[in-house]
Design goal:
Elements (H helix, E strand, L loop, with lengths): L6 H7 L3 E6 L4 E4 L1 H7 L3 H4 L10 H17 L3 E9 L2 E14 L2 E11 L1 H24 L1 E7 L4 E4 L1 H6 L11 H7 L5 H13 L4 E8 L5 E12 L5 E10 L1 H19 L3 E6 L4 E4 L1 H7 L3 H4 L14 H14 L1 E9 L5 E12 L5 E10 L1 H11 L13 H15 L5 E10 L1 H8 L1 H17 L6 E6 L2 E9 L2 H14 L4 E3 L2 E3 L2 E9 L6 H17 L5 E3 L2 H20 L5 E10 L4 E13 L3 E3 L1 H11 L2 H21 L5 E5 L2 H4 L4 H12 L6 E6 H6 L1 H14 L2 E7 L6 H4 L6 E4 L1 H4 L6 H16 L3 E5 L4 H9 L4 E3 L9 H10 L8
Parallel strand pairs: 21-22, 24-26, 26-27, 27-28, 28-29, 29-30, 30-31
Antiparallel strand pairs: 1-2, 1-5, 3-4, 4-5, 6-7, 6-10, 8-9, 9-10, 11-12, 11-15, 13-14, 14-15, 16-18, 16-21, 17-18, 19-20, 23-24, 23-31, 24-25
């Protein structure tokens, strides 16, 4: 049957544009769609080329494509631009050769406008990008589960919430459960299954464990779709990372508990000084309950004792530095006056706007009464203006509790002036008194500002040498005093020669009470007199032996590294939530060939004094980083903690040296945590900040060790780049029995959380310690409960066999 129309009618009816060109690129045929696109009649196009209708660059592109088709005898399928009615449009073009008797005689081209399709794809891509960006900003991801095919889709943000790279693994329900915290898996699975059975959506909060072991909190919402028969066909849900909110809630509960249980009174006002709340201690102290004073100002408690300049200075300091501390006299509800130590802190929000004032008040009325009584006594020696026996005793007693918190020593000197009796008897009491005054001035000149020199009576003087770090340091001070009196004491132009017999006792080696220390120093002083005077003697022979031992240690320490006598042990750090070992602290040990095992507290201090700490510290770093790299290569991604002393931080080459070691061994610096003790940081805070910031920028993790034993300022603490705070073991040891220690640890945890710091409790030795720390939301533990320090091979066995359980010691 012959069609009632020719093929030209068919080609002109097509939406696609069609053309045929000869081998010289001249048009032989165009259909109506092509002619309309060009904006010319087909008769005006035939026998012409693209250069007659298109810009030169586009026409040349068409020509190059056609040359390729003619030469390769192949078909091309490309997207390209075309000018139509003055507008550039995107077209899809197919060009292929036409043959007659096996020879290419023409080129057939077919193309159609895909501009709208491209614009729609771009718009969809922008929408998808915007959605992904919005999810990332809100920390909310979405997922869809096709229950007929079990195909699960996760948005990119879901991957990121689980600590994964987008599309890092195939999304399955089993993969999701693998990232749910082990203790929450059953709950999450049951809620999902129950919601399908009961044909309703669900909401649940639970924990997840990210790829790096970090535990976070998420909030999930889900709805289901069912077919006409009631069978579930699809689940659609969202995952929201709510870790920050959960932590804030926990910290708020903890802070509230600490607030109420504090022994000090606390009063909080808004920015306009109107009272918002007080704690129980403040209520008891002032006699007011919160309902009586809410909305009022602290002027309610004014006693009228302080003048205008007092408050001007108070507000001047508060406005300038954000805090004020001092003593103030206030009035209780019953009219009674009381003296208090007051600290006021101004709080600002993240935009720097003042929001609140917090006042911390400690009633010291009884303390002031006692001080007044003491000052009415004879507190100072009338002749020399030195503290007398009463003040000397009080200062010793006051220092002992502080020394129980650290490892430093306190020395007592009993000094008896040789030949004083002869001077006093021969030249009279007047000259004897002047002699004692000159002796007091001479001894004072050899001591530090913080040391105490006292006169007990006659020619007997005593010295309290504070914070002594070694026996050698104590001996140096004694030698200075003896050296001073090798020169004569000059009284009214006359030279008097004397000497000093010094007996020394040390806390806690020779006693832990005032009586024990005084008796020991007095006994040692008489031993000096019996041995020829003008010298010094430690109370026990063991003290003298320690000086000899110290010299031996100092000399042998220089070659300990070369003789391979130093070695490392590692104490594991455990995450109670994940029940995994996440790191370890490297601890140096010295196996001396003659003495045997020497504790670090014996040789580290010496190495700091002699400058050998830099060499030892770098050896420790190299060995620890090398062992950690080996563990990493075996599949154990652990963070090694390395102790760094203040002497190392003050070494200008330290940063470059430790970076070079890490780079040489090939361990990423994020697996290296440098521990610096709080007391070392406080020696020179500004310099410490500069050095720690430099180390942090290099990629090292930083930790503040022995926290709570120093005197850190919160303003400096929040500036420190350290991400971890280690609570000193002295607070942990009695945390299950001592309410004060438990309150201190709770306060440290709350403060650290508010500053975004991580917390590690060291010295955890019993199940009771662990339970108390878990109750306070401290989950990172180091201590004998899980393991003593271990050699590297024993440590390997430990992490291989570790099941998350410990044992009390």
């Amino acid at each position: 049957m012959k069609l009632p129309f020719n093929s030209r009618i068919i080609l002109d009816a097509l939406e696609q544009s069609i053309f045929i060109k000869d081998v010289n690129h001249l048009f032989l045929f165009v259909n109506k769609s092509y002619a309309d696109l060009i904006g010319a009649k087909d008769s005006e196009i035939i026998a012409k080329s693209d250069f007659d209708f298109f810009p030169k660059e586009i026409a040349q592109k068409y020509r190059d494509d056609e040359i390729f088709v003619l030469e390769s005898k192949d078909t091309i399928d490309v997207e390209e631009n075309i000018v139509s009615n003055g507008q550039i449009k995107i077209i899809r073009t197919i060009k292929k050769p036409l043959y007659i008797d096996g020879e290419v005689v023409a080129i057939l081209g077919i193309f159609w406008d895909i501009t709208k399709e491209k614009e729609e794809k771009l718009y969809f891509k922008k929408l998808q990008s915007g959605l992904n960006h919005a999810q990332a900003l809100a920390h909310i991801g979405h997922w869809e589960l096709d229950l007929t095919s079990n195909a699960l889709f996760w948005s990119d943000e879901v991957y990121r919430i689980f600590g994964l790279e987008p599309q890092e693994l195939s999304a399955t329900y089993e993969a999701f459960l693998n990232h749910v915290h082990p203790e929450d898996i059953e709950m999450v699975n049951n809620i999902y299954i129950s919601s399908i059975k009961e044909k309703h959506g669900y909401y649940v909060e639970h924990r997840i464990v990210r790829k790096n072991g970090e535990v976070r909190f998420v909030e999930e919402r889900c709805e289901h779709e069912f077919d006409e028969n009631g069978n579930p066909v699809r689940s659609i849900g969202t995952v929201h990372d709510v870790t920050r909110r959960k932590n804030a809630e926990n910290e708020l509960v903890l802070a509230s508990a600490v607030f109420e249980k504090m022994n000090d009174g606390v009063l909080i006002t808004d920015a306009s000084q109107q009272i918002i709340t007080i704690n129980s201690a403040y209520s008891e102290m002032s006699g007011y309950n919160i309902e009586e004073i809410r909305g009022k100002t602290p002027n309610t408690f004014s006693s009228g004792w302080h003048d205008k300049s007092f408050y001007q200075n108070l507000w001047g300091d508060l406005n300038q530095s954000g805090q004020w501390s001092g003593e103030i006299i206030d009035r209780r509800k019953n009219g009674e006056l009381y003296t208090a130590e007051l600290s006021i802190i101004a709080l600002h929000n993240k935009d720097g706007k003042l929001t609140n004032y917090i006042s911390i008040v400690n009633d010291i009325s009884e303390k002031k009464k006692k001080e007044s009584l003491i000052h009415n006594l004879a507190y100072f020696d009338a002749l020399t203006n030195l503290p007398n026996r009463v003040l000397f005793q009080e200062r010793v007693l006051n220092k002992i509790p502080a020394l129980q918190r650290n490892t430093k020593k306190m020395a007592l000197f009993f000094i008896d002036m040789d030949n004083f009796k002869n001077i006093n008897d021969t030249f009279g009491h007047f000259t004897g008194d002047k002699f004692l005054i000159e002796v007091a001035n001479s001894i004072r000149a050899t001591l530090r500002e913080e040391d105490t020199l006292a006169r007990l009576g006659g020619d007997e003087f005593t010295v309290i040498l504070e914070d002594a770090e070694s026996v050698l340091e104590i001996a140096v001070v004694a030698e200075k005093i003896i050296e001073r009196f090798k020169a004569p004491v000059i009284i009214e132009g006359r030279e008097f020669y004397t000497g000093a017999s010094i007996g020394i006792s040390i806390y806690p080696d020779d006693g832990t009470t005032y009586e024990q220390l005084v008796k020991a120093a007095d006994t040692a002083m008489y031993q000096v007199k019996d041995s020829g005077k003008n010298s010094y003697q430690f109370y026990t022979q063991s003290m003298n032996e320690k000086i000899t031992e110290r010299s031996l240690i100092e000399n042998d320490l220089r070659s300990a590294i070369n003789r391979s006598e130093l070695f490392l042990e590692y104490q594991p750090k455990v995450n109670l939530e994940t029940k995994r070992v996440y790191g370890m602290e490297a601890l140096v040990r010295w196996n001396h060939p003659d003495i045997g095992l020497i504790r670090p507290d014996k040789f580290i201090g010496i190495s700091e004094e002699t400058g050998q700490i830099s060499q030892i510290g770098l050896w420790v770093a190299r060995q620890a980083i090398s062992d950690t790299k080996a563990l990493y290569d075996e599949g154990n991604s652990l963070i090694v903690s390395i102790n760094v002393s203040s002497k190392q931080l003050n070494d200008d080459s330290f940063i470059n040296d430790i970076c070079a070691i890490a780079d040489e061994i090939g361990l990423d610096k994020s697996y290296i945590e440098l521990e610096i003790t709080e007391s070392h940081l406080m020696m020179d805070v500004k310099k410490a900040l500069s050095i720690l910031n430099a180390l942090s920028e290099k990629g090292f993790k930083l930790s503040i060790d022995d926290f709570g034993t120093g005197y850190s300022s919160l303003s400096y603490l929040k500036k420190l780049p350290a991400k971890t705070i280690k609570i000193d073991r002295s607070f942990v040891l009695d945390i299950d029995r001592d309410e004060d220690d438990r309150s201190i640890v709770a306060a440290i945890i709350a403060m650290a959380r508010s500053l975004g710091k991580d917390i590690v409790a060291e010295g955890s030795e019993t199940k009771e310690h662990i339970d108390a720390l878990k109750f306070l939301h401290c989950y990172k533990i180091q201590g004998y409960y899980f393991s003593r320090p271990l050699g590297i091979e024993k440590f390997r066995e430990f992490i291989r066999d570790f099941k998350g359980e410990g044992k009390s010691v």
